[in-house]
Amino acid sequence: MLTLQHFILKQRALSLYRSAIRASRSIPGPVARRETIMWIRAEFEYTRNIQDIDILKGLSSIKP
Q: What are 46-59's pLDDT values in tens digits?
């Protein structure tokens, strides 16, 4: 069962993901843009199942 803290951190991560994808629009080359988006997605998928609040806080400490 997810706590309120988990829910808040999940929303923060989603916001960070969306911001990163939007920022990738400014990458000039389509191949580089695609590779960057694939890298962003892979990083978020890698940490998808982490449940430890302290680790999640550290991962989401970057502000969008």
A: 888 878 888 887 87
What Cα–Cα distance (Å) separates residue 8 from each residue in 23, 24, 53? 23, 25, 11
Segment 1-17, tens digit of pLDDT: 778 988 888 888 888 89
Are 25 and 33 a contacting pair, CB within 8 Å? yes
**pTM for the complete prediction?**
0.79
Q: What are the angstrom distances between the C-alpha of 22 and each of 1, 11, 26, 31, 48? A: 31, 17, 8, 16, 20
